[in-house]
Amino acid sequence: MPAQLLVKGDATSTCIAAASVIAKVTRDRLMLELDQQYPQYGFAQHKGYGVPAHRAAIHEHGPCAVHRRSFEPVKSMVGFAGYGQKAAAAAAVEKAAAAAMGEPVAASDRILEAAA
User: Fold this and answer.
1) How far apart are CA 109 and CA 25, in angstroms?
2) What is the pTM (predicted TM-score) of this model?
3) Which of 5, 27, 30, 89 is least buried, going by the fewest C-beta atoms within 10 A?
4) In the chain, at which residue ranges do the beta strands (DSSP E only) sit?
5) Is the distance from CB of 65 to CB of 90 less than 8 angstroms?
């Protein structure tokens, strides 16, 4: 399918502008769900952006299952090498328990599945 670069497309194309708004609203809603699962990180306040409070929470609690290991500061954190496996194992247990109880898929599962 042919594509064309459109610089500042959200300012000149209503379709791009609408997609941008939908993406932001969807992300904000996912962050609210993630805040319920991981309240210690404050996702409801900062929506996952790397503000000082978010970075401080990562340093205090370590990264959770939805923190991307390829981004700083998680990427270079020393002392959290095993956190990825622990978080993945904990997420798998939570997912299995939720499935056994017939609960809907959590926001973190949708994010992890989309990233896979």
Assistant:
1) 18
2) 0.60
3) 5
4) none
5) yes
